[in-house]
Write a structure and sequence with these properties.
Blueprint lengths: L5 H13 L6 H17 L1 H12 L3 H27 L2 E3 L8 E9 L2 E5 L7 H13 L2 E5 L5 H14 L5 E3 L4 H8 L5 E5 L2 H12 L5 E4 L5 E4 L5 H13 L11 E5 L3 H16 L15 H10 L4 E4 L3 E2 L4 E2 L2 E4 L16 E7 L2 H10 L5 E5 L3 H10 L4 E4 L20 E2 L4 H7 L1 E9 L14 H14 L1
Helix pairs in contact: 2-4, 2-5, 3-4, 3-6, 4-5, 5-14, 9-10
Length: about 450
């Protein structure tokens, strides 16, 4: 879609929603099935587009993009009828006779602003939830992944109801134009800076927002952890997508007794996964663009590379890099890294590690490797984050039944599965009353005896 057609397109979407087309479960199912068909039929084109944007392998694209969305659709289809049923609520005796229930209704026309690091997933996962909830939607893919953005625009207009869905490509100008319009809900994934701008724009029309903003997600490795498994899973989670994952472990806090062994094992795992030359590995992606390359490459200077450290600006390649000797006050420890650089800090006491985590704003995730249930409960109670995962990483966001989102500075609002269905709809309290009985006790004037009786009834039966 082009900006000159924006008003006409939004009017069409509002008209479709106003006619009640999207409220029918059959229509919702049809759109979700069509979206799934697109993922299956165009799997190769999707993989090729994502590869052309930043070199991600087809296996990684399936696991983190198209395969995940397919699972999300299947999860919603299997449960949609149940989610749509009103929830009955008990009525106190003095409000009888009647029936009370909570119904969920779609917001209307929603705006979904995607991100470049998972260009298909972050556009379509919220869209699946928006469709399940019965909304019309405008999707704005990231301009930094132009090939994926192009296939989203082309295929959604083909496979979905064009009177209910639209895709607008472009950069900051197009996003600003969209934000000047009135939407019924806005979902945004990206930086805190832009998140603030989204909130400011939404405040003009008091539009509800879902913000997923990332942050510095820590990973604690305690001395009683299984270090071989910890090393393997940390290396996989950190360098997946070349570190360009909002819930990747941003830094590691390792107990001094486990430090040397963890470094040794992580270096072994790096070689096992990506070979001695990760630049030649088909499983290791590239940085999205030169601006992000320059920012991440500069952070390598803040520590001693125990592994990696090699860079190639022309190919936007930064080797998987593990840093030691990092100061807590270094630039690499101030903002989310969002790249393949992993600082490792040492602690002597668990309270010291917790203090480091609490020094930063609340992250999207906290990770912990330990064999101790008491340690797990202590870290869980002493920290705040959108998600928590013990003895693994990332998978708390891959389970469709678990809500995904942040807290505080890492964002607010949840989606995936039922949480997404609820995020793109609102609760409507509904009471059906009979005309009889209609006792005069409820109506004024309220004399002393009448009020005394009313008081006793409300107190006793309330």
């Amino acid at each position: 879609m082009k900006l000159e057609n924006l008003h006409e397109t939004l009017n069409q979407l509002r008209q479709t929603f106003g006619e009640g087309v999207t409220r029918d479960i059959a229509w919702r199912r049809t759109q979700l099935v069509a979206l799934r068909k697109f993922l299956h039929e165009e799997e190769r084109r999707i993989a090729d587009a994502v590869f052309r944007d930043f070199g991600k392998s087809s296996a990684e694209t399936f696991l983190t993009e198209s395969g995940f969305i397919d699972g999300e659709i299947r999860y919603c289809l299997a449960r949609l009828e149940k989610w749509m049923k009103p929830e009955r609520v008990p009525i106190p005796l003095y409000y009888q006779f009647g029936r009370a229930e909570v119904q969920r209704h779609p917001f209307g026309v929603v705006l979904i602003i995607g991100a470049w690091n998972y260009p298909l997933n972050i556009c379509l996962a919220p869209l699946v939830c928006a469709i399940a909830a019965g909304n019309c939607a405008v999707v704005k893919p990231s301009e930094h992944a132009p090939h994926t953005s192009g296939i989203i625009a082309e295929e959604l207009s083909r496979c979905l109801d064009s009177n209910a869905f639209a895709v607008f490509q472009g950069g900051a100008e197009e996003t600003q134009a969209l934000l000047k319009e009135r939407f019924d809900c806005i979902c945004y994934t990206g930086s805190r800076q832009i998140g603030r701008e989204i909130m400011h724009a939404a405040s003009r029309t008091l539009t509800p927002v879902l913000l997923e903003l990332g942050g510095k997600s820590p990973c604690i490795v305690d001395r009683d952890a299984n270090l071989r498994i910890a090393a393997r899973r940390i290396v996989w989670a950190k360098f997946l997508n070349a570190g360009q994952t909002c819930i990747a472990p941003d830094y590691v806090l390792v107990h001094r007794d486990a430090e040397k062994e963890l470094f040794r094992l992580m270096k072994e795992e790096l070689a096992r996964m990506y070979g001695n030359d990760p630049k030649a590995s088909s499983d290791y992606p590239r940085i999205i663009n030169e601006r992000h390359f320059d920012r991440v490459a500069e952070l390598i200077r803040d520590g001693i590379p125990e592994a990696g450290g090699d860079i190639d600006r022309e190919r936007r390649y930064i080797a998987p890099t593990i840093l030691s000797g990092v100061s807590i006050d270094a630039p690499v420890m101030q903002d989310e890294i969002f790249g393949p650089v992993l600082p490792v800090l040492v602690y002597d006491d668990l309270d010291e590690a917790i203090a480091v985590i609490r020094k930063n704003p609340d992250p999207l995730a906290v990770y912990l490797f330990t064999a101790s249930a008491s340690t797990r409960e202590k870290v869980l109670a002493a920290t705040r984050s959108g998600g928590f995962c013990s003895n693994d990483l990332l998978f708390q966001s891959a389970i469709h039944g678990l809500p995904f989102g942040g807290v505080g500075m890492s964002g607010f609002g949840r989606y995936h599965g039922k949480a997404g269905y609820e995020a793109f709809s609102y609760e409507r309290s509904v009471l059906y009353r009979s005309l009889l009985p209609d006792p005069g006790l409820r109506y004024p004037p309220y004399g002393r005896k009448k009020f005394s009786l009313l008081r006793r009834i409300v107190t006793f039966f309330g």
